[in-house]
Design brief:
15-stranded mixed beta sheet, 1 helix, 5% helix, globular, Glycolipid-binding domain-containing protein
Length: 204
């Protein structure tokens, strides 16, 4: 069960945004990721709880950020309910999309589990609902994912397989790289793995 800490920063000016203290593991239903977010000063700001099924579909999502809350799942595309900090207004949304995304590294792992790309696969288009900080506002985005390289790196234990993905935002053409080992993000725009207490889980 990997457990550790990511640091999140603005990918453009590198302003520190948060620390994400996480743990994740494959389970009976597929894969689950839970985390708590704090400011660089240590104040609690939110949480992530994401469960995938064996096919990589989000069967349960719960996000908290600055007293806003989102609960969602794969249902007729993806469906979610977003509640304001007072708890008096709850707005439901539904989009014919494949999955969710956001600032948490959990979503990058989830997309790779859904797409199951190989180095010989062609780039695959995916439609996502992104929940943007600080109020978890939903926005539909289209991306293209390609697995461009898979390398095994020697470690003190077993070899560590690292996948390098190229992700393209289809509205702007902007591209970036994402490096993933098992169920841990090693590097991505705005994400840095600062601490890892145990090796990544290997998906079968």
């Amino acid at each position: 069960m990997p457990r550790g800490r990511y640091s999140l920063h603005d990918p453009h000016d590198h302003t520190p945004l948060a620390h994400e203290h996480f743990q994740c593991a494959p389970g009976p239903s597929g894969w689950r990721y839970v985390s708590q977010l704090t400011t660089p000063a240590g104040d609690h700001t939110g949480s992530v709880d994401l469960t995938l099924d064996d096919l990589g579909r989000p069967i349960r999502l719960e996000l908290h950020a600055h007293s806003w809350q989102v609960r969602g799942a794969a249902l007729d595309g993806v469906t979610w309910v977003r509640t304001d900090p007072t708890g008096t207004e709850a707005n439901e949304g539904n989009v014919p999309a494949h999955a969710f995304t956001g600032t948490s590294p959990a979503f990058l792992i989830a997309i790779t589990r859904l797409l199951r790309l190989t180095p010989s696969s062609s780039a695959t288009r995916v439609r996502l609902v992104a929940f943007t900080d600080p109020v978890l506002a939903p926005r539909t985005v289209d991306q293209s994912w390609a697995l461009v390289k898979r390398e095994a790196h020697a470690t003190d234990n077993a070899p560590l397989t690292v996948d390098e993905y190229q992700v393209t935002a289809l509205d702007t053409g902007e591209q970036h790289a994402v490096h993933i080992a098992g169920d841990v993000v090693l590097a991505a725009p705005g994400i840095e793995l600062e601490d890892l207490e145990s090796p990544p889980s290997a998906f079968t």
